[in-house]
Amino acid sequence: MLARFDEIYKSYIKGKETNIGMTTDKIVIVASMIEKEAKIDKDRPLIAGVIYNRLNKNMKLQIDATVEYAIGEHKDKLSLDDLKVNSPYNTYLHYGLPIGPISNPGLKSIEAAINPAKHDYYYYVAQNDGSHIFSKTYLDQLNAEKKVN
Question: Does 90 score more than 80 pLDDT?
Answer without folding.
Answer: yes
